[in-house]
Design goal:
heterodimer; A: 560 residues; Serine Threonine Protein Phosphatase 5, Tetratricopeptide repeat; Alpha-Beta Plaits; Rossmann fold; six-stranded mixed sheet; four-stranded antiparallel sheet; 21 helices; B: 118 residues; two-stranded antiparallel ribbon; 2 helices
């Protein structure tokens, strides 16, 4: 799709240069499709800048992304449409926008396209005056969707741009000249938004949604003029390759500070001194901060000192740069779709050994903190793992009774909403994570996961580090011991003998699946032999063998 | 909803919270009306401006604010996106005004308004 567009523009460019004097009087369905593509490509280029303007109605910095996703959904719908009538393309586009609408501005954008489609119904092409009618209908449709329209937003911009269209269409027949006036009017309208909406003036920004609409219109104008819209064109990236300067080898840090009586000016000055490309917008209660810095901790610590932080993201710029290079090295990339969070709850899991970490990662753990028996992670490590995640809701699985306390401290220190599912063993953690439901909320998940963890039996096999008399057993130092659900129940000279004993105590024949995780010092063949022996003893049960690579415990076995 | 400060007690009534929520709902794009919660879904009505608060229910459970909204949405908008916007608008503006977290914003779509033929 993009390739086709790039070609189209390049083919068209010399033609259009010669045609500069010839007016464009009408636009057909394919013409409209190209205009929408150009608007979207131009929007893609500016989406990040638009995101950073977003302070109204909720300062969550996603307006540009939402509008882009809405426009991309629109393009996908019309991408393969061979239709030549402007009516068909407009209706298809409106349908795509409706289905893909995201966020406030995305919904409004879909209404604008709906109005355009309605006005162009049954038309094969449109001229200047029909374009004015379409814009008029777009504005009417957009305003119909809200009881109390807030001025100083995208609504104002579409209305004022429409007024300009009507005036221009009465004087001009050339769509190029009309669109030129429309774009100028939209630009001026955007510039006025802070005088209409106080929250924008306080933050020192223009309205993000309005700016987005202006950018889309400007992209269309650039296309119709034969100028490039630059995004994703192999030709352009070769010239316009972004070369990072020294400071961009650092981190991109974004967060929102919430507090009371925040001094925006003072905060802006302080943050500005901490790095490059700083952006500090907001009001006395909520401030969005964006900065490029070598030391991501400095602005975060400062922010945490004056209010509570949320929506924290820290990204490695060098990594981003590499990804940028990679993605542009492939000429056939489609318009990139911003990755969406699949779920707004993340899980932090404590596990030791590469095999176990892999097991948890494959089950969807968001972060694995190394640690376990004799190597408990600190509260700070857990806190850092939770804070580094993109989501505000986090579930921690400590997987060891000694780590639950540290997890609880991390829970208290964090601004995020953290739930601890008190898993005491690795198998409990695995069962809990398997029970995780992407669609359920945090509390429900915590409850379901805790219940799942309680249903699994855990056997841990290790070596006694000292002689002890416990639970009626005499254990000598160096002997193999078996723990059933954290309680010492068997000892012996070989792991095999102890495992058989504990499986008997547990009544393994009553369970369905027995999973054996073998540790770092166990040879694979040895583990396979053990699994075969268990399988022989318990023919009804399914036996799974996993290379856990965990230290200290030659074997961890679960039954459920 | 009460809060103790060194100077005395601050008390915010559910009605006051409903007013805050009302403003945010009415400014939310896609909402074209509120419906009285006492009516069944089949009888949803567009409430007059003064009666918008009838479509808003504010409950205080312990110190948690739970807001239920009964709304009419413009036909032809993406309802999931509109509802999501309402939730975040209401939560943000109530929290911003009160400085107290809102635990839940539940949106009940009681009807769609068809304003013209497509």
């Amino acid at each position: 799709m993009v390739d086709g567009k790039a070609q189209k523009v390049q083919e068209d460019r010399p033609l259009r240069k010669h045609e500069t004097g010839n007016p464009i009087l009408t636009c057909d369905g394919q013409g409209l499709a190209r205009l929408l593509e150009a608007g979207t490509a131009w929007l893609e280029r500016h989406a990040d800048a638009i995101n950073s303007l977003n302070v109204f109605p909720v300062p969550d910095g996603d307006t540009g992304t939402n509008m882009l996703l809405t426009m991309q959904a629109t393009l996908e719908e019309i991408a393969n449409s061979p239709e030549n009538s402007v009516s068909a393309v407009a209706h298809t586009a409106a349908h795509g926008a409706l289905m893909g609408a995201r966020g406030n501005s995305g919904v409004i954008l879909s209404q604008i396209l709906r109005g355009v489609a309605r006005s162009l119904d049954k038309k094969d092409e449109f001229n200047a005056s029909e374009f004015a009618s379409a814009m008029t209908e777009a504005t009417a449709t957009a305003y119909k969707g809200v009881i109390k329209p807030v001025e100083g937003t995208i609504l104002t911009v579409v209305r004022e741009a429409t007024e300009a269209t009507v005036t221009a269409a009465a004087e001009e027949e050339d769509l190029r000249l009309v669109l030129e006036k429309v774009v100028n009017a939209a630009k001026e309208s955007v510039a006025r938004t802070p005088s209409l909406l106080q929250v924008l003036a306080e933050a020192g920004v223009v309205d993000a949604g309005g700016q987005g609409l202006f950018i889309i219109l400007e992209g269309m104008l650039r296309y119709i003029r034969g100028e490039t819209v630059e995004v994703d064109f192999a030709l352009e990236t070769a010239v316009d390759l972004h070369v990072p300067s020294e400071d961009e080898y650092g981190y991109d840090v974004q967060f929102i500070i919430q507090g009371q009586d925040l001094n925006l000016e003072e905060i802006r000055d302080t943050i500005a001194a901490m790095g490059e490309s700083t952006l500090v917008v907001g009001d006395s209660a909520t401030i969005k901060v964006h900065i490029h810095t070598e030391e991501p901790g400095t602005p975060l610590n400062y922010g945490a000192g004056i209010g509570s932080l949320s929506k924290i993201t820290v990204e490695n710029l060098q990594e981003q740069y590499q990804e940028f290079i990679l993605s542009h090295a492939q000429p056939s990339v489609a318009l990139s779709v911003t990755s969406e969070e699949v779920c707004d709850i993340a899980t932090v899991v404590v596990a030791q050994g590469p095999g176990l970490a892999r097991v948890f990662e494959s089950l969807g753990a968001s972060a694995v903190v190394p640690g376990g028996q004799t190597m408990n992670p600190s509260t700070e490590e857990l806190l850092k793992a939770a804070e580094n995640l993109r989501t505000d809701q986090v579930i921690i699985l400590p997987n060891n009774s000694n780590i639950i306390l540290a997890a609880q401290q991390a829970q208290k220190l964090s601004e995020k909403n953290i739930c601890i599912v008190p898993t005491r063993t690795i198998p409990q953690g695995v069962s809990a994570l398997l029970a995780f439901n992407y669609q359920a909320d945090l509390d429900t998940n915590a409850r379901v996961m805790e219940r799942a963890a309680g249903e699994v039996q855990t056997i841990e096999i290790t070596i006694a580090t000292r002689s002890v008399h416990l639970n009626g057993l005499d254990v000598k130092k160096g002997e193999v011991i078996g723990l059933l659900n954290d309680t010492l129940t068997a000892s012996g000279s070989s792991p095999k003998q102890v495992i058989e004993e504990v499986l008997r105590q547990m009544k393994a024949e009553e369970y369905e699946i027995i999973t054996v995780y073998y540790g770092e010092n166990v040879i694979q063949g040895e583990a396979e032999a053990l699994a075969a022996k268990i399988s022989q003893d318990y023919p009804e049960q399914e036996i799974e063998l996993v290379n856990g690579g965990q230290p200290h415990y030659p074997y961890i076995i679960s039954a459920e | 909803m009460t809060e103790k400060t060194s100077l005395g007690k601050i008390e915010v009534s559910p009605t006051a919270i409903a007013s805050l929520a009302s403003r945010a709902v009415l400014e939310s794009y896609g909402v074209v009306g509120m419906s009285s919660r006492s009516l069944g879904s089949g009888l949803a009505e567009l409430l007059r401006r003064d009666f918008h608060k009838r479509g808003i229910e504010v409950r205080l459970e312990g110190n948690e604010i739970i807001i239920d909204l009964y709304v009419i949405i413009e036909y032809g908008t993406r309802i999931s996106a509109v509802v999501h916007n309402i939730m975040s608008n209401v939560k943000f503006s109530v929290e911003k005004s009160l400085g107290v977290p809102v635990a839940e914003v539940n949106v009940h779509v009681r009807g769609l308004r068809v304003s013209s033929e497509d």
